[in-house]
Design goal:
Layout (H helix, E strand, L loop, with lengths): L5 E6 L7 H14 L3 E5 L3 H6 L2 E4 L26 H13 L4 E6 L1 H14 L3 E5 L15 H22 L2 E6 L6 H9 L4 E3 L9 H7 L9 E6 L6 H12 L5 E5 L11 H19 L5 E6 L2 E6 H6 L6 H10 L2
Parallel strand pairs: 1-2, 1-4, 4-5, 5-10, 6-8, 6-9, 7-8
Antiparallel strand pairs: 2-3, 10-11
Helix pairs in contact: 1-9, 5-6, 6-11
The protein binds adenosine-5'-diphosphate.
Length: about 325
């Protein structure tokens, strides 16, 4: 018999479409297995300010298709201090919570790892981020929806780029990871993607310019990952304007629309599988792991691996983009 009788659930860090589907899945799978569920509001902040409510199955009705997170999310500086985490631990004890399921990105899972080892407390993480930058899972919850949002937006910008024969630099999210930019570029037939992973090995813009942006085309679109490493779309556009004044250059920054909207079928299913797997993992005495899906199989990824290892970009995709943009 597992010693776990009550599971706390929270969403933390940047919101991502599909977080609600994950909250629903964790809640329902826990109740199905005879566990109590305590919903914690505003991520780790709610553990410090004691914003906790018991959830029944009806608390998660009709949320599978909603973007954002009904639990709210926040960034919490106090949780980064030992005193803050001690306060969080006291709240957890007060509410008789025996284990936590934390849904969030790299930062949230780092916080979970530190807390779990400090208090020897069982935590299972779910990868909830549009960036897809967690190691050990083919996809994170929210990534597919964000990619589809980017695709819709770029398709629309393509209309004006073509009509005016312009060169567009479109900035997408992904501070340290180029998954959205690279796959977004392939999905929309872009000329190139400028991504942080290869920023130090090659002058991506220089290469592109030297190919002449394909004279046969009457518009060009380049997706740029928002990152201090790439410099972002504005910096790219400035460079082209200075060095190649013949191009009619425009910039669009997609911004927060990338995080919003109803999750795709893929993200709803992924979040549902991962949420149910989180409860299985806890009942199976798994500790301090992130749930991943690799090759369509649920896997348990130790926090250390999920957070610390840089998830590599698939070089074959870069090559495909190059070949198809001639
Ligand atoms: P994301 O989870 O989307 O990557 P953040 O990096 O903002 O978002 O992290 C979310 C929260 O996780 C932070 O506000 C903080 O409460 C917690 N967190 C992040 N890093 C740490 C850390 N090193 N130690 C403790 N808590 C952390």
């Amino acid at each position: 018999m597992s010693a776990i009788k009550c599971v706390g659930i929270l969403t933390s860090g940047g919101d991502a479409p599909g977080m609600n589907a994950a909250v629903r899945a964790v809640t329902r799978a826990a109740i199905y297995n005879g566990l109590k569920v305590k919903a914690i509001y505003r991520g780790y902040k709610g553990l410090i300010t004691d914003e906790i409510e018991e959830f029944k199955t009806q608390n998660v009705s009709n949320i599978i298709g909603r973007g954002g997170t009904i639990l709210k999310t926040a960034r919490c500086k106090e949780f980064m201090t030992p005193e803050g985490r001690m306060q969080a631990y006291e709240t957890i004890k007060k509410h008789d919570i025996d284990a936590l399921v934390c849904i969030g990105g790299d930062g949230s899972l780092t916080g979970a790892r530190i807390f779990a080892s400090e208090f020897n407390f069982p935590i299972v993480g779910l990868p909830g981020t549009i960036d897809n930058d967690l190691f050990g899972t083919d996809s994170t919850i929210g990534y597919d929806t964000a990619l589809n949002t980017i695709m819709d937006a770029v398709d629309k910008i393509r209309d004006t780029a073509t009509s005016h024969e312009r060169l567009f630099f479109i900035e997408v999210m992904g501070r340290d990871a180029g998954f959205l930019a690279l796959n977004g570029a392939i999905a929309t037939g872009c000329e190139a993607a400028i991504i942080p992973e290869i920023a130090t090995e090659t002058d991506q813009l220089g290469e592109l310019i030297s190919q002449g942006f394909r004279k046969s085309k009457n518009s060009s679109i380049v997706l740029v990952a928002e990152s201090p490493i790439t410099g972002g779309a504005i910096a790219m556009a400035e460079r082209v304007k200075n060095e190649y004044p013949q191009y009619d250059v425009r910039v669009t920054i997609l911004g927060h629309i990338q995080r919003g909207g109803s999750p795709s079928a893929f993200d709803r299913i992924l979040a549902s599988r991962m949420g149910a797997a989180a409860i299985d993992a806890l009942l199976d005495d798994q500790r301090n792991v992130m749930i991943g899906v690799e090759n369509d199989q649920i896997v348990y990824v130790p926090f250390n691996k999920a957070i610390k290892n840089d998830k590599p970009i698939n070089r074959e995709l870069l090559n495909t983009l190059r070949i198809l943009s001639i």
